Amino acid sequence: MRQVKSSSRTQSRTGVRTAPKKKSSKVAPGKRRNANSMSTFGRRKERPAGPVAAWFANLREGNFGTQPFAYSAVALVAGVIVYGLVIGGHVQAAVDGGERQVNRVLALSGFSIQNVTVTGRAQTRKDDLLEAVGVGRGDPVFGFDTEAARQRIERLGWVRSATVTRLLPDTVRIDVSERQPFALWQRGGALSIIDAEGQPITDEGVQDFAHLPFIVGFGAPREAPALLNMMRAEEPQLLQRVRAFVRVSDRRWNLRLENGVDVKLPETGVAKALSDLAAYDTKYKVLSRDIVSVDLRLPDRVSVELTEGAATTKGIATEAAIKNGVMRTGSSARGGNT
């Protein structure tokens, strides 16, 4: 019986030809994509280089693009412009101008200075204080610089410290703490009022403080408070008789009494010298006699210089020495002002 060769197309029993089945691939479905991604040489295709890697590659090959340089140039020009605006003050001027406009609008809305109240003022002149504050009625309250005003007020001679407060909507409050006058200070031809810390207050109106202690000489304000406080505590009766405290060579003091007698104090041991003088005067009334000066610079004696009239009458000048509680008479002792 003759065999019939099977054709590429078969015919079903119904007479309909069917296409032959495709051969199944032996490659797993999950690996087909990988197979297609392989190059003809069997290697995986490389991913495209990023912009940074590409730039370094071009740099190695000597291919310099102009785009980075263009960006750098633009950034440099912009930086120069901004720097010029800032250094020239144009930016700050624009900000300040905008601030002023806002303050003007707020002032028209009721936030303007109408009152300035001051507490603690006794010696400071009102006109000087208002000038230092530097405001006028109707000025914007938010445009008022309280810190700058405080600094100007504290430059006034009588003012020790000040506090400046903005009270909305229309008031500025100033609290002042003033210096207390302590003495009058003469140096050369100038006369000033000083406080207890030796700081000059003012040169004006000194005639109103003639009752204060009078100190003379350079360095006197620095050292006078210690001497005066000591005499107030220990020798108040002697202090009442002193008309002036004279600083000599910025080393020691001379006391000018109300009767014109000079008491020459030592550089050290001032408290003991004054105590001895007070005891000596209580016993012998030496400060009430016809003398020019009493020298306390030596620790063991008191030297007294007579007036010319008293020396002529007595024939000699008198030196009194305190030694073992006994006063002795001797030759003249005319000390200088050193």
Can you characterise this structure?
The chain is α+β, with helices and mostly antiparallel strands and 338 residues long. 35% of the residues lie in helices and 23% in strands. The chain is built from 10 helices and 16 strands. The chain has an 11-stranded mixed β-sheet with strand order 8-7-6-9-10-11-12-13-14-15-16. A 3-stranded mixed β-sheet has the order 3-5-4. Strands 1-2 form a two-stranded antiparallel sheet. Strand 7 and strand 8 form a beta hairpin. It is elongated. The N terminus and C terminus are likely disordered.
Strand order of the largest sheet: 8-7-6-9-10-11-12-13-14-15-16
Sequence of secondary-structure elements? EEHHHHEHHEEEEEEHHEEEHEEHEE
Backbone shape: elongated
Q: How large a portion of the residues is in β-strands, by DSSP E? A: 15-25%
Distance between the termini: 164 Å
The largest sheet is: 11 strands, mixed
What value does the Rg take, in angstroms? Answer: 51 Å
Number of alpha- plus pi-helical segments:
10
Task: Assign the structural class, choosing from mainly alpha, mainly beta, alpha/beta, alpha+beta, or little secondary structure.
Answer: alpha+beta
